[in-house]
Amino acid sequence: MTRRTTSLSAVALAAALALAGCSSGDGPADGKPALKVSGAFMPQPVMDMAGGFLTITNDGAAADRLTSVTSPISDDVTIHETKDQKMREVKFFDIPANGKLSLARGGNHIMFMELKKKPKQGEKVSVELHFEKSDPIKVDLPVEAAHHNPQQD
Ligand code: CU
């Protein structure tokens, strides 16, 4: 936990430095997070559990946190990090100011347990992301092939 906090601070610091070097003046100066979600998907589940992946970009001058996720498909949705190939529930994920939070295969993810139904490739699963500061954001996760991984290159 301590190590994770340290490395996240380093990322936040790097983002702050990058921001300092770019003062075009058109950014929001009121210190609010400005979140956008991209690249969302759910690999087609093979059992009654599933993972969810997406990227949250923060173009605002304030950090935020992803604190929980809800979905009609499961009453047991949590957020997990992966450390040493083991996943562990966390209370929140940091979204740095002028930075991003990536939930990707092999790393941080949304975990859906006890699925009420198993969605098939081509369907969509709606989720609502809850944040410490920002209003909730609704996202449809397209269901992709079980081994879909856009990160591979
Ligand atoms: Cu998990």
Instruction: Classify the beta-strand content into a percent band.
Output: 35-45%
Counting copies of identical and different chains, the oligomeric state is single chain
- Can you give the mean pLDDT? 87
Low-confidence stretches: 21-28
Name the helix and strand elements from N-terminus to C-terminus, one letter apiece: HEEEEEEEEEE
Principal-axis shape:
globular
| Ligand list | copper (II) ion
Supply Rg.
16 Å
| Main structural class | mainly beta
Q: How many strands, which pairing sense, and closed or not: the largest β-sheet?
A: 10 strands, mixed
Q: Number of helical segments?
A: 1
Helix content: 10-25%
What is the number of strand segments? 10
Kindly report how far apart the N and C termini lie: 30 Å
Outline the structure in words.
The protein has 1 helix and 10 strands. Helices cover 12% and strands 43% of the residues. The chain is mainly beta and 153 residues long. The relative contact order is 0.24. Strands 1, 2, 3, 4, 5, 6, 7, 8, 9 and 10 form a 10-stranded mixed beta sheet that branches. The site of copper (II) ion has 4 residues, from strand 8.
Topology (SSEs and partners):
Blueprint: H1 2-20, E1 35-43, E2 50-58, E3 64-70, E4 76-83, E5 86-89, E6 93-95, E7 99-103, E8 109-113, E9 124-131, E10 137-144
Parallel strand pairs: 1-10
Antiparallel strand pairs: 1-2, 2-7, 2-8, 3-6, 3-9, 4-5, 4-8, 9-10
Summarize the structure.
By secondary structure, this protein is mainly β.
Write out key terms for the chains shown.
153 residues, 10 strands, single chain, 43% strand, 1 helix, ten-stranded mixed beta sheet, globular, mainly beta
